[in-house]
Design goal:
Blueprint (H helix, E strand, L loop, with lengths): L2 H6 L7 H13 L8 H20 L7 H12 L3 H8 L2 H8 L7 H11 L3 H5 L12 H4 L4 H6 L13 H12 L7 H4 L4 E3 L6 H17 L13 H9 L6 H11 L3 E4 L10 E5 L5 E5 L6 H17 L9 E3 L8 H14 L2 H6 L1 H4 L3 H11 L3 H11 L16 H5 L2
Helix pairs in contact: 2-3, 5-6, 11-13, 14-17, 16-17, 16-21, 20-21
Length: 406
């Protein structure tokens, strides 16, 4: 008998009595071995129960706790029976008493294994379970480092509260699925070190999006607004000591959030382009190298991604370790646009700094390009692949204090 034939043996659930029997059978075969006939029957029964409840049950539940208690009473379940789905008997007790919020992984388990309607568990019509980390993935997040950074409140046993802490980060960032595994892995553009800890990267992204949500840009973002002229206007802010803060204000007026958040261990990250729930771009910078030249090139590089790639890649995020000499088309395009926005190519080609990088030549080009001397020094160092050149001009440690004060 094929799996398709086995599914046909499960009749549609049409009455309350059939519903109770189907639920009882679900409970009976809940631990069926994957791929077994009982496992396939379980899948079919859950679908049949969900179909019945879509019409008959969902609207009867005012809140998730009512939905859970209804299923417990209907199937004769105790709190002990829910422990494998919620995590422990203590957690079951806390959820049912309202002392602990139902996490997405708990809700998903209750929905998939007990057939409790998703709408009832999520408390909003039409809701669906989106991508979320598995319990095993959650344990790999750098919770201790995040607590030490004051991103989260300290707990006596962080591993026991991983789901709660993830929910806190995700809610602050904009809600369920705002930064999903698929966005990080399949749909993210990564100019990244092979040793990057993706769970630390994931956590950093949620933090950046949370900060952007709490300090949302004042302006509306207009697709196409970021072009060569726009980027030149941003670059000119580099000429003053508080230019990074002025650039942040300028971007906010045009609906683009600029968030500076120190990298987490083993992320090897300089910058990223993320997306708020309403579609506005978020540029996150880590100041991994706290230098004026690095800040401005990284900012221009991420703005170039917004200009060139953001609209055509709406399900992608961009992650950049600029230590890597990337050869992909998009990275080459972003590098070139960033360089040209900071120092127009005709000025660079005609400057003495290009051939003889003396301090005076660097100063003169910075005046002509209307940018900070550090920007020119950084371009010279990169072009010559010599990072001992002009080190006195790159502005080490000058950016972090600006953002620390805001």
């Amino acid at each position: 008998m094929t799996a398709k034939d086995e599914k046909r043996l499960v009749e549609p659930v049409r009455t309350e009595e059939e519903h109770k029997k189907a639920v009882a059978r679900i409970i009976e075969i809940l631990g069926a071995k994957e791929g077994s006939p009982e496992d396939r029957e379980l899948d079919a029964l859950v679908e049949a129960v969900k179909g019945y409840e879509a019409d008959k049950v969902e609207n009867d539940f005012p809140d998730p706790i009512s939905a859970i208690k209804f299923r417990m009473e209907e199937a004769g379940l105790t709190q002990r029976d829910l422990a494998p789905l919620i995590g422990s008997r203590a957690k079951v007790s806390e959820v049912l008493s309202g002392k602990r919020e139902l996490t997405m992984s708990m809700a998903r388990a209750l929905h998939e294994h007990l057939g409790i309607p998703a709408d009832a568990l999520l408390k909003k019509p039409g809701a669906a379970f989106g991508p979320a980390p598995t319990p095993e993935e959650l344990l790999r997040f750098p919770w201790r480092e995040m607590v030490n950074r004051k991103w989260l409140e300290s707990r006596s046993n962080l591993r026991d509260y991983a789901e709660d802490m993830y929910r806190t980060l995700e809610d602050r960032a904009g809600g369920q699925g705002v930064m999903s595994p698929a966005l990080l892995r399949e749909n993210g553009h990564r100019r990244m070190n092979a040793k990057t800890n993706e769970y630390a990267l994931w956590a950093w992204c949620l933090r950046v999006l949370g900060n952007a949500n709490e300090t949302a840009p004042q302006g509306n973002y207009e697709p196409g607004i970021v072009d060569e002229a726009f980027m030149r206007d941003v670059a000119r802010h580099s000429a003053t000591a508080d230019g990074p803060l002025k650039a942040r204000e300028y971007l906010a007026r045009h609906g683009i959030a600029l968030i500076v958040e120190k990298h987490l261990k083993n992320t090897y990250l300089d910058g990223a382009v993320l997306r708020l729930g309403d579609g506005r771009p978020v540029i996150g910078l880590t100041l991994r190298y706290d230098r004026i030249d690095n800040f401005w090139f990284t900012l221009m590089h991420e703005l170039a991604h917004v200009s060139l790639h953001y609209e055509d890649n709406q399900n992608r995020a961009f992650f950049d370790d600029l230590d890597l000499r990337e050869s992909s088309r998009m990275e080459k395009e972003a590098d070139e646009m960033a360089e040209d926005a900071l120092i127009p190519p005709e000025l660079w080609a005609s400057s003495a700094a290009n051939a003889a990088p003396t301090p005076m030549a660097v100063y003169e080009l910075s005046q002509r390009a209307e940018v900070h001397m550090a920007v020119v020094a950084g371009r010279v160092r990169y072009a010559n692949n010599n990072y001992r050149l002009l080190s006195q001009f790159v502005g080490r440690g000058a950016i972090g204090p600006l953002f620390a004060e805001t």
